[in-house]
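Changelog entry

Holo records now carry the ligand SMILES as an explicit input line rather than a separate metadata file. Below, a converted record for pyridoxal-5'-phosphate, shown in the new format.
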Amino acid sequence: MKFRAELEVLKPYNPPWMSREAAVDRGSDTYVKLTANELSFGPLPEAEVAVQEAMPRLNRYPDRHAAALREAVAAANPGCTPANILVGNGSSEVLLNLLQLTERPGEVVFPWPSFTLYAAIASVLGLEAKKVSLSPDHYVDLDAMLSAITPQTRAVVLCNPNNPTGTHLKLDEVRSFAEALPEDVLLVLDEAYYEFVSDPAYAGSHELALGSGNVAAVRTFSKVHGLAGLRVGYGIAPAEITDYFERVRFPFSVNLAAQVAATASMQASEQISKRAAFVMEERERLQRAFEEAGLGYVPSQTNFVLVEVGADVFERGGVLVREGEALGYPGWSRVTVGDTSENNRVISAIS
Ligand SMILES: *Cc1c(COP(=O)(O)O)cnc(C)c1O
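Structure line, unchanged by the conversion:
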């Protein structure tokens, strides 16, 4: 058969230690897995109970509107109503559905290095991917991003904080950028690590989104909520974007277990904040250890740290990390902040 030419670049990425990562997922403890920025703890007990209670109803389709989940997300973000809430099968799907709303042909502008999914989605949708280099200190360069906008630009994706660098933009900077952007360009803020940011000048993008016509903030249950296996993410956007978003979203894209678990987890905000606080403390401990070992690293506002040493060093110490080669940082490693004993292993590996 004749395949679309855009798909040629989309070969699946196979990490070098894929089989070892799979072994850890099956329960082996030869290695600890700090490759994918997952939380090292299981879901909150509230989320587990909600899934168990939902089990006898698995013969039924889930609520196609995910109304309870959207209410819970709206309640956690002052000023939002359920009409402002996007949901999807992971925030990956929320990103896909958002970019499906834009006109084609056209281009999507995003920073680089950043999350590789943006380029993949662009290719799948037949949009051009336009990558804008980070500044020398590994921050998203908003002036360069603005200069990259052309009449062909349909959307800009800002990964904030940025994966794989862990660097963030303050809300004021994002707001000025949004105001400078043409109104017909969609601005997507990918905030997968929102809960781990300690800078008080960061939070509040939902207000920016609500007051705009073209800004959507996207977040996930895969990181601090510890629900990566259930696949559920959400977004906050003006009601008109939600309206169009619902036209392209598959009716039952968020399954029943995911809906009830995510709702319960969102409502347990105190426990979630505690987990985030633990990760932030452990992140500081890892960064101090990197410093003491004389390794360069990028100060992080996420649950991972990009450090200037090869992944093989960690591998020898029984720790699997994401090798920088795959992320645009050859010779570096991206290390997920794990639990106390996992982080101890990281520190032993470099000491
Ligand atoms: C982990 C991550 C996500 C989350 O993806 P899900 O589909 O919600 O699991 C989104 N964006 C970035 C930048 C990430 O690192």
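Spot-checked after migration. Residues 37, 90-92, 115, 159, 163, 190, 192, 220, 222-223, 228, 233 surround pyridoxal-5'-phosphate (CB under 6 Å). The chain has a mean pLDDT of 96.
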